[in-house]
Write a structure and sequence with these properties.
Number of domains: 2
Distance between the termini: 35 Å
Structural class: mainly alpha
Order of helices and strands: HHHHHHHHHHHH
Length: 250
């Protein structure tokens, strides 16, 4: 190990660096999102992801070390702690589900069937589009779980032979796109019912889509949260079976 690498581990290889960098970039994203009145490209998660990659690359080049090495030794100790909070944050979506369980009880068949059918269609489309653009098995496996929220999709991706980091990027990009196009998609598909709006935004846009659904109505927000929970469970069951059936899993 070179003297530069030793110095990086000594001064930056603690959880503090990764935590502070993550929080700072997210707060910057929030500020940009606010002053641009909700411009979709400044969605805090998207800003944090893009700037985070750029900052890590820039620092690695500045210190003259490999980017992967810098990420693993300087950022990851703190980044993993931030990532840990994704799991309880995801579980917290059960709260609005519990509060609006009256809707779930009334429409549980429609909700479950629509999510399963929608997931089945999306898996087929993702698979064949990935094949068409020339992705290998690892690439396809990384794309398939993106219907679930990031905390659920990443472990599934790793289990079927994908790359969790690529899956996380796909989930965030997908959510930002849905957030940007939400109003247009609702208008095009004539989604006037809050239940349909919430299920669509929660399924396609995950937590970011749920934030958009909350802006529409309380019912849409609750249904988006319900969709995030249920679709994650369905993805956890269906995606490995689909991947195995299509010969993706080694």
């Amino acid at each position: 190990m070179s003297g530069t690498q030793t110095a990086i581990i000594t001064y930056l290889g603690t959880p503090i660096f990764g935590i502070c960098l993550s929080i700072a970039l997210f707060l910057l994203g929030q500020w940009l999102f606010k002053i641009t009145k909700g411009f979709f490209l400044f969605q805090p998660l998207f800003v944090g992801m893009v700037l985070g990659i750029f900052v890590l690359w820039l620092l690695a080049k500045t210190f003259g070390v490999n980017v992967t090495w810098f990420y693993t030794n300087a950022y990851k100790p703190g980044g993993d702690l931030i990532f840990w909070f994704l799991n309880p944050a995801t579980i917290a979506f059960a709260i609005p589900l519990y509060k609006r369980n009256d809707i779930v009880k009334r429409f549980w068949v429609e909700i479950l069937l629509s999510l399963i059918v929608g997931l089945g269609i999306s898996l087929v489309i993702i698979y064949y589009v990935s094949k068409f653009i020339g992705l290998d098995k690892n690439g396809i496996a990384s794309m398939l779980p993106q219907a679930a929220t990031t905390a659920i999709a990443m472990p599934i991706s790793g289990a079927i032979g994908g790359t969790p980091a690529v899956t996380a990027m796909a989930c965030i990009l997908n959510a930002v796109i849905i957030y940007a196009l939400a109003s247009w998609l609702i208008k095009i598909f004539h989604l006037t019912e809050p239940i349909g709006q919430g299920l669509g935004l929660g399924t396609a846009g995950h937590t970011v889509g749920s934030a958009k659904a909350i802006q529409l109505s309380s019912v849409a927000g609750a249904m988006a949260a319900i969709a995030v929970v249920i679709i994650s469970i369905v993805v956890d069951i269906v995606v490995p079976i689909f991947a195995n059936f299509m010969g993706i899993v080694k």
